[in-house]
Amino acid sequence: MELDQRVNRLLDEIPAFINDDLNTAKALANLFELVPVLNSIKDGKVSVTALAPGTVARIQAECKIWLEDVFGLQAVTEADNEKLKGVMELLIEIRKEAKLRKDFITSDKIRDQLVALGIQLKDEKGGGTSWSIES
User: Fold this and answer.
1) 28 Cβ partners below 8 Å, 6+ apart?
2) I need a labelling partner for 71 at 20 to 30 A (CA). Which of 11, 13, 88, 123 fits?
3) Residue 93 is part of which domain span?
4) Which of 44, 70, 96 is the last residue before a domain boundary?
């Protein structure tokens, strides 16, 4: 069970790295080393039995602790996507109204601040506006 030992070693090292002057780079590197293992199991290239049941449970628990509780990463939910769509529709409508009033300062400010956040607006030929998140 070499894979099982490797996974447990990676998980064991994370608290030591955090306790070593908050070395998040090494802690995250260990989490990233788990990704190919998990993907191989997910893709069927490695049998889930290559890991002890306790190790699988440990991966789930520790990923939640480190990724969500400590580093604050949260999964984006469908509800979050709907909220974002609603906010974007509101901003696009406010920007459209500003342009109709010839308030180009407000219109440009909305566009520029969204660009600074990584959101690109595109004015369409029919008068509509689309948006995309830059990666």
Assistant:
1) 71
2) 88
3) 78-133
4) 70
How many Cα neighbours within 13 Å face the side chain of 99? 15
Domain count for the chain, please give it.
2
Q: Are 50 and 41 in contact, with CB atoms under 8 Å apart?
A: yes
Phi, psi of 118 (to 5 degrees): 90, 20
Burial classification of residue 77, based on how many CB atoms lie within 10 Å of its CB (0-12 exposed, 13-18 middle, 19 or more buried): exposed
Spacing of C-alpha 45 from chain mean position: 26
Query: Cβ(44)–Cβ(12) under 8 Å?
Result: no
pTM over 0.70: no
What is the number of helices (H) and of strands (E) in the chain? Answer: 5, 2
**Does 32 share its domain with 91?**
no
Does 58 share its domain with 94?
no
Q: Are residues 51 and 19 part of one domain?
A: yes
